């Protein structure tokens, strides 16, 4: 009897950015995105205000990412 753990296929999700199928695995740091590029594109959309969750406090990690994105773009509109 073979008790392999390979009989279970990894859960597959569609990348929110490009809709490519991506395996949901612990070794994919970009999940649910397929790549760092797609994740960065989505973060950029958040920073631009394309996505907004009203009344939901942002996670510290997200705020830091936004600050970094703004700093890279030279956008310091928060000071206005
Ligand atoms: Zn993608």
Topology order in helix (H) and strand (E) letters: EEHH
Radius of gyration (CA) equals: 17 Å
Strand segment count: 2
Count of the separate structural domains: 1
Number of helices: 2
* Helix fraction bin: 25-40%
Overall pLDDT metric: 78
User: What's the overall geometry?
Assistant: elongated
Strand order of the largest sheet: 1-2
Q: Which ligands are bound?
A: zinc ion
How would you sum up the major sheet?
Answer: 2 strands, antiparallel
Provide the CATH architecture. Answer: 2-Layer Sandwich
**Percentage of β-strand residues:** 5-15%
Task: Write the CATH fold name.
Answer: Erythroid Transcription Factor GATA-1, Chain A
End-to-end Cα distance: 69 Å
Q: Structural class from helices and strands?
A: mainly alpha
For this structure, what is the CATH homologous superfamily? Erythroid Transcription Factor GATA-1, subunit A
The first-level CATH class is given as Alpha Beta
Poorly predicted regions are none
Features:
metal-binding; 80 residues; DNA topoisomerase type II (double strand cut, ATP-hydrolyzing) inhibitor activity; Erythroid Transcription Factor GATA-1, Chain A; single chain; binds zinc ion; 32% helix; mainly alpha
Could you please describe the fold and organization of this structure?
By secondary structure, the protein is mainly alpha-helical. The chain has one domain: Erythroid Transcription Factor GATA-1, Chain A (2-Layer Sandwich). The protein is built from two helices and two strands. It has helices at 36-47, 60-73; strands at residues 12-14, 21-23. Strands 1-2 form a two-stranded antiparallel sheet. A hairpin with a 6-residue loop joins strand 1 and strand 2. Helix 1 packs across helix 2. The mean pLDDT is 78. Bound molecules: zinc ion. Zinc ion is lined by residues 15, 17-18, 20, 33-35, 38.
